[in-house]
Each structure stands twice: as C-alpha cells, then as structure tokens.
Design a protein that fits this description.
Elements lengths: L1 E5 L6 H9 L8 E7 L2 H10 L7 E7 L12 H8 L3 E4 L9
C-alpha cells in the first residue's frame, strides 16, 4: 500500500515519516517502506514451510509542504499523488495558539 503524508509546513509530517520508517527526509520529501510483522504469517510459515514468506508492506511518501493543501496544486505534485492509494493528513494539534 502506498501512503502519502500531507499537511502544512511544520505540522510534523517528517517526524511521523521518520518514526514509521526510521529514515530521514529531505526538503523534497522522502520515500520509505516498512514490513508489517504478523504472527499469523509466521505461524502458518512454521506449519507449511514455504520457500518464501512475505509480509504485508506499506510505503510512505513524505510529500512537500502544501503540495496537497494549496488552492492550485502543481502538476508535479499531482503526478506524485496519482500513484498513491492513501492520503494521510498530518495535523499539528500541539501548537500553542493562545
């Protein structure tokens, strides 16, 4: 599954991306994948002894700030989002806005 992280600048997209993938991002965004461990798959593999065991995977894309939330989205940003299956909006809920 390909998931895009979107949100305003400074909302924590890169922090969420780094926490999930253990990778650092650049100013142009980042791409990282993780395997989802599943004890059921391990148990079935122990019973059936397949040649290969494959866990579910999730790819995360840290989209540049504002690429989705602008009134007019650039064609480059649309091209990157077109291949995604999920858009996850990261919201800054910890700002001290007075």
């Amino acid at each position: 599954m390909k998931t895009g992280l979107v949100g305003f600048a400074g909302c924590g997209k890169s922090t969420v991306f780094s926490a999930l993938t253990r990778l650092e991002t650049t100013t142009k965004g980042g791409l990282g994948s993780i395997w989802v461990p599943d004890h059921r798959v391990e148990r079935l593999a122990a019973i059936w002894h397949p040649r290969k065991t494959t866990f579910a995977g999730i790819s995360f894309v840290d989209l540049p700030s504002g690429s989705f939330l602008e009134k007019t989205v650039s064609s480059g940003a649309l091209g990157r989002m077109r291949n995604l299956e999920v858009l996850a909006e990261v919201v800054d809920a910890f700002s001290s806005g007075g």
